[in-house]
Specification:
The chain has 358 residues and is of the alpha/beta class. It folds into 2 domains: 6-149, Glycogen Phosphorylase B (Rossmann fold); 165-356, Glycogen Phosphorylase B (Rossmann fold, 3-Layer(aba) Sandwich). Helices cover 39% and strands 16% of the residues. It contains 16 helices and 13 strands. The protein has helices at 15-19, 22-31, 46-49, 63-81, 95-104, 116-125, 138-142, 146-149, 164-176, 198-209, 223-231, 247-256, 266-273, 287-290, 338-341, 345-356; strands spanning 6-11, 36-42, 57-61, 87-90, 108-112, 128-131, 183-186, 215-217, 238-240, 259-263, 277-281, 307-310, 313-316. The strands form 2 sheets. It has a 7-stranded mixed sheet with strand order 9-8-7-10-11-13-12, sandwiched between helices. Strands 3-2-1-4-5-6 form a 6-stranded parallel sheet. Helix 13 links the parallel strand 10 (259-263) and strand 11. Helix 9 (164-176) crosses helix 12. The longest helix is centred in the N-terminal third of the chain and has 19 residues, at 63-81. It is globular, with a radius of gyration of 21 Å. The relative contact order is 0.11.
Amino acid sequence: MKQIKKILIIIQRSNGDVFLSSPLINAVYNYYENPQIDLLVNDDTSMIAKTLSNINHIHQFSYKKKKENRISQEKELIGNIFRKYDLSINLTASDRSVLYAILASKNSISAVEKDAKKSWWKNYLLNYSYPFDTTIPIVKNNIQALKFLGIKNKNIEVKSSYPNSAKESILKKLKEKNIDKFIIFHPSAQYDYKIYPRELRDNLLKKLNSLNVPIIITGAVSQVDQRIKLELPNLTNVHDFIGETNLNEYFALSHRCEAYIGMDTLNMHIAASQNKRIFAIFGPTILATWSPWSNDIQANTNINIPKQTYGNITIFQANMSCVACGLAGCDDKHGNSDCLDNIDPDIVFDEVQKWLIK
């Protein structure tokens, strides 16, 4: 196994899963002394995959192509990876991703379901497998393969990077608006059920505005982000950057901020990777898996309480017995999350204010 030169890592899940694979990627890159590492990801996560260090090539799976011509896509993709690698590591337990790992290399490692009825054939065909465990942080799930490779990784550090051109672009934008030190407020998420209600968000922004510190509102060009952009209150110290930065520029902007305030989403994990002070508003998301990883104290949290701080991270949840349920909204169909309606903006503001005046 020490002779491994070509590695395929398969991550067919969300942006967060892809981004939080960096501890695994960096560990195998260093251990095997600069091997060629390729990724196989879903095409809607390819942009975040391109920000990862030590990556040679990115294979993409498209659900659109799957609907249009599944056979054609599978034939091309399998042709591109079949026995092309000395090692394949799959971080997702789906049937398709496991098959890709098995086909890509004679040395295959993969996450599988805990249910033996679903995973028996995967355990049989894979060289090594491990159950995907929702009771531990996603970054720890992502490095499970290292134990089979004999790689010791005592320090789990999520890292991020961006090109110098992004830094220069952001410095120019900030200079144009005469902004030096600032706080990021990120109000959006991929899905509505993870977004703080408008009335509470406006209340929080008005309170933050009173701190006389520039608050930069961030977001992309999605329909959700653009709706929020139209809803933002007109406040002296609030600066709307929604839709004004590409992904690399956002990394650079986040790297320059003093703190992150906002929703449980990719941007939160980016700020955590940069060791920023974080104030995160959580709805139904399971903390044990998805609470931000603190590089400083090498931990996340699995405790559900209305307010908690660990390391450089503070998390806010509703004081409700159902928190955190892990559902996609109370109806589990991307509807409203009542828990987000029950997080008092005063509590969030008080924590930010206490941190700021220290």
